[in-house]
Amino acid sequence: MSTIILESVLTCPHCGFAKQEAMPTDACQFFYECGNCKTLLRPNPGDCCVFCSFGTVKCPPLQEQPGCCSVRIDPC
User: Do 57 and 21 form a contact (C-beta atoms < 8 A)?
Assistant: First the structure.
């Protein structure tokens, strides 16, 4: 079993502000407020949380799935 990464850099799609955040290990985070422009981010359609949509690393629940790639290769 691979190591679960617990931090991800979230980048706001509206203003480009990026911040490293700790991810919850027991749930997906559906809302996130940008620390710069205060936009309330929600996951893109088909994603379970803001980390999967706007982060550098997918959320821990997805990382635990067999065959899951934890580091995002394709941008949203």
Answer: no
C-alpha separations of 10 from 42, 58, 62, 67 in Å: 12, 10, 16, 23
The domain limits of the chain are 7-63
What is the DSSP pairing of strand 32-33 with strand 18-22?
unpaired
| Residue corresponding to tokens 């899951």 | 68
Q: Which two tokens stand for residue 37?
A: 């422009």
Q: Which helix (H) or strand (E) holds 7?
A: strand 7-11
Collapsed DSSP state (helix, strand, coil) of residue 2: coil
Q: Mean pLDDT across the chain, nearest whole number?
A: 86
pLDDT > 90: percent of the chain: 64
